Amino acid sequence: MTTQQKLIDSARHLIQTRGYNGFSYADVAEEVQVRKASIHHHFPAKADLARAVVEESRALIVAQTRSLDGGGFDPEEQLRFYTGYWERCIADASAPFCVAGMLASELPTLPADLAENVRAHFRDLSNWLETVLTKGAQLGLFELHGSARLEAESFMSIVYGAMLTARAYGEPKVFAEIVESGLRKLLRRTERVAS
């Protein structure tokens, strides 16, 4: 792994656990075992490092969205994979909160370009969810009660709210319970009765 990637990974962990305003280059230098000057070589400013973290997350969402273009995917499986990822990360504390979610809570204090990257992350995620929900509705798997865009935004809010609630209670299982409730509301009424 390159030093640059180690710096990004360290910043991701620190943002997820402390927030943007809760860490410094000294924290990253200590965690990665490099001098602060080495960090500045790769990322001249703290916002540059945080932006690299967000861009890495966005790239994953964009790649996932492109993979859906082929059409051969199970929408429910996609949603369960997405929420299952966060369920595991919260349970084992490897990524107890989405980095973009942490940054969004600090949006008023972030540099403008970083704030825009955070907003773009949520737009990308919402677009991906909209694609998944649209396909699920077309296949008869999901029952949407509003536009696919509105349902995507609602589901995204459920996931991020569940992260926050699990953190507030210190109970990882709360995340799974809240998200499962949200998924059941999306599943067609006939499937809900059968389960």
UniProtKB/TrEMBL annotation:
Residues 1-61 form the HTH tetR-type domain. Pfam families: TetR_N (PF00440). InterPro entries: Homeodomain-like_sf, HTH_TetR, Tet_transcr_reg_TetR-rel_C_sf. Residues 24-43 bind DNA. SUPFAM superfamilies: Homeodomain-like, Tetracyclin repressor-like, C-terminal domain. Keywords: DNA-binding, Transcription, Transcription regulation. GO terms for molecular function: DNA binding. The keyword Transcription applies. This is TetR/AcrR family transcriptional regulator. It comes from Luteibacter pinisoli.
